[in-house]
């Protein structure tokens, strides 16, 4: 009888603890449902409709997806290749830069490390307008632009290049800016993971024959901070696919000149907020969500323990 009462008390305490946990999780769950789950559900629902924001949505089934994959030549010829190119360079490139710079900063003393980390992180939190103003000065299409002025003085070119409206150069410039601003939260997570590594592991590795910093990075640092690296990978992937404002702000038009810098996000804005074809824009956004999910799943499998 006494043992049964003890078991009941333990169960009651666990249930009370669970109730407390739900109370603390409640505000986050409410916000998550309102701002994440509900918008995704609405976007999926609208993707099966023809909706112009004025009339009631009319159900068209999978017609938007069929149009996107078979009839939207701009999407297949320009938008999708541009997005994949941008994501494959800025995603892995920004991730590799984040890790290497975080690892290099971890070797410094606290004061210079903090200053340099702030300098590297600041571009990721700079507003799009300020960032665009900076790069427009560099790539201005006349002789006042710094890049043109340097190239003319060096004798490489004789006439200014209109960088931001030339289809040959717009996407590479967008990629450069994307790499420059890729030191975001993932970079800080990697730096924190390196700084909080167990020093005893490095001491044991030195006894076992690890001789230099590079070997420490390969055999100790990377294997011991997979959670931080997974977080950084997911944040980098999401950031790479959601960027789109850079090209529009640099060129001053959506679509960008010759669709050279047109990414999926720009395509969504074009159909959703310029042409007001919300159903089709929702279908494109669902496709983008699926692409991000696939890449995030691949990253999770790479950095999680078996």
What is the β-strand count? Answer: 2
Count of discrete domains: 1
Helix content: over 70%
Q: Which stretches of 5+ consecutive residues score pLDDT under 50?
A: none
Residue-averaged pLDDT? 84
| CATH class designation | Mainly Alpha
Instruction: Tell me the CATH topology.
Output: MetI-like fold
* Integer-rounded radius of gyration: 25 Å
Order of helix and strand elements from N to C terminus: HEEHHHHHHHHHHHHH
Q: Sheet with the most strands?
A: 2 strands, antiparallel
Which geometry do the CA atoms define?
globular
Q: Which structural class should the secondary elements be placed in?
A: mainly alpha
User: Mind telling me which CATH architecture this is?
Assistant: Orthogonal Bundle
CATH homologous superfamily heading:
MetI-like
Strand coverage percent: under 5%
N→C terminal distance: 45 Å
Count of helical segments?
14
Q: Give the strand order, joined by hyphens, for the main sheet.
A: 1-2
Describe the structure.
The chain has 14 helices and 2 strands. The chain has helices at residues 2-46, 63-70, 73-106, 110-125, 128-138, 146-153, 170-180, 185-195, 199-208, 213-224, 226-242, 245-251, 264-274, 278-303; strands at 49-50, 58-59. It has a two-stranded antiparallel sheet. A hairpin with a 7-residue loop joins strand 1 (49-50) and strand 2. Helix 3 (73-106) packs parallel to helix 8 (185-195).
């Amino acid at each position: 009888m006494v043992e049964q009462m003890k078991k009941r008390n333990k169960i009651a305490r666990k249930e009370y603890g669970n109730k407390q946990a739900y109370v603390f999780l409640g505000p986050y769950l409410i916000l998550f449902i309102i701002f994440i789950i509900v918008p995704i559900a609405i976007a999926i629902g609208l993707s099966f409709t023809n909706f112009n924001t004025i009339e009631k949505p009319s159900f068209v089934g999978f017609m938007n997806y069929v149009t996107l994959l078979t009839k939207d030549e701009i999407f297949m010829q320009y938008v999708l290749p541009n997005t994949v190119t941008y994501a494959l360079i800025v995603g892995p490139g920004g991730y590799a830069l984040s890790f290497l710079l975080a690892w290099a900063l971890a070797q410094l003393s606290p004061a210079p490390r903090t200053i340099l980390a702030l300098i590297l992180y600041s571009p990721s939190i700079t507003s799009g307008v300020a960032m665009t103003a900076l790069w427009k000065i560099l790539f201005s299409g006349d002789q006042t632009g710094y890049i043109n002025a340097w190239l003319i003085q060096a004798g490489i070119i004789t006439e200014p290049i209109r960088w931001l409206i030339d289809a040959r150069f717009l996407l590479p410039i967008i990629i450069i800016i994307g790499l420059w601003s890729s030191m975001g939260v993932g970079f800080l997570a990697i730096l924190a993971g390196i700084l909080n590594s167990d020093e005893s592991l490095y001491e044991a590795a030195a006894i076992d024959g690890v001789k230099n910093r590079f070997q420490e990075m390969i055999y100790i640092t990377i294997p011991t901070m997979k959670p931080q690296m997974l977080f950084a990978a997911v944040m980098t992937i999401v950031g790479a696919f959601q960027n789109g404002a850079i090209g529009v702000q640099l060129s001053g038009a959506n679509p960008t000149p010759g669709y050279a810098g047109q990414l999926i996000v720009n395509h969504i804005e074009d159909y959703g907020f310029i042409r007001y074809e919300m159903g089709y824009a929702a279908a494109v956004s669902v496709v983008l969500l699926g692409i991000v999910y696939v890449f995030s799943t691949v990253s999770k499998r790479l950095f999680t323990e078996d």
